Amino acid sequence: MAALTGKAAVVTGGSRGIGRAVVLRLVRDGTAVVFNYAQSRDAANEVVRQAEAAGGKVVAVQLDLAETGAAEELLATAERQLGGLDILVNNAALHTEVVPIAETTEADFDRVMAVNAKAVFLTVRYAARHMRDGGRIVNFVLELSALARPIGGRAVHREQIAHILDVAQLRHVTLQVMPPHRETHSGLSGPFVLLETRERRRLAYLEVQDHRALTDQEPTVGNMFGKYGNMRAQALDPENSCAEIEKLAE
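Above: the chain sequence. Below: its structure as tokens.
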């Protein structure tokens, strides 16, 4: 696909599942990709093998995003290996066994937050500083009521809020929140991610219950973009959104 030919992408957690599908789709569309994996060396090598068999360029990097400096190292590696950075896909997420809060260790909690929250902030910040011209703005619409839940205690919650506000200040990012009085809105059916390339090609990644899909098919993609437009209209504007988020840390 000419729209992505010659682009350079980073995908976090690209050896399995959704990340693997994203890597191979980007390669099919002409994008060179660097992805990381923490432990699944055989699975990562298989992704590289399939990508190279299709004529693509893919580099697998063993990095644990919970480790200090790993997020920045991953993106810096992509710049060195691919000659620049155009696309960032934050896919990596750490899921642990669900146990009662009384049995959850601080180390387990810190590791989950390092991968699922801090690494996302660090990769987005790096991309905002280093992405080549033509990089796209990342837009978020979040539930304010979900952000208000102080998981991990007040100190951890304040740190999480601070990270979110830092991300909101990046030049490639706009952030809006859905206020609690919106009892119904277009995002209640499940999370989704939308991408529009510089050449106006549109993609949608959908999660509905146990179903997950990455598609460029119409009318599905058009409907999702319309749904997202409705959500942004219902949500608070970026300035008021940040003001409401700041109140959560008080």
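The CA atoms of residues 121 and 164 lie 8 Å apart.
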